[in-house]
Amino acid sequence: MARLPSAVYASDRDRTWVRCGVMGDELSWLGALCADVGLLLPQLSPEVRQRLSLLAAHTETVTDGRRIATLARAIFDHYAAHKPERQFSALEQRIVIIGSLFADIGKTGPLNAEAPEQALIVEMFSVEGVRDDQQSVSQFFATYFPADAEERERRFTSLGLDPRMPMRAFWNLHAAWTLEIAQHSGLPEETIAAAASHHLLEDINPRQIVSDDGSFAMDFGDNLGFDRAEKLVILLDKYDALVRRGRRSHREAISWLRNLLSQHHQFRDDAEFDTLLSDLDVVAESLD
User: What is the CATH number of domain 11-109+173-287?
Assistant: First the structure.
């Protein structure tokens, strides 16, 4: 069974790990993970590769993606060993790995953002631990970027965005931005829905791509509907966020996810989500 990288989920050590130079290797790791499922990074548009470089340089997004993909691999191994009749197909593995690695490409801003505005959005997402998610973007700039808050607000407005919006509304935009970027990126079309729907449990469904019956509202190639691959992407993304950024223990993170599922209007009785979460519980705890 695959092992997670050292310092994984050890929140107090993560930042040291990143600052000691491991981040410089992260794009190489991402390339290797993608190649394992048939995607070569040079096949992607130069624009998307530049956005990945921005995220790697200024945030922990690419590092998070590596950790999530490695955990996904461990889950695939668990199914192959213990549930061979239900093991993940090559297509499902491709969807989960690429969907997870590119879910947050939207944290570089909308498709029409030029490089300076992409950097602005990336720097906003690089600030972690913001407790007041209802403060306006204007207040956020004044608090975290006081030296040039007015200039940042001007550039933010130039993207057609309202600096009076709450930070929560701003953060939620990245899923829609992921969708539009992914559709112009060279990513395999069957992986795009998984990347864009990774916050569906929070009812963030860009362009309503996932219909109530689980079908997709647009064409994603060989991927015909919202299924366990997309569900696993959602659980992996949320689990990682809870453990690293939220500093929850494994048990606390799993409990939080179970509670979220139990209260969700659409998925509270979803047996597939429940099974995937149980398997995530077993595998992640064995690697902790």
Answer: 1.10.3210
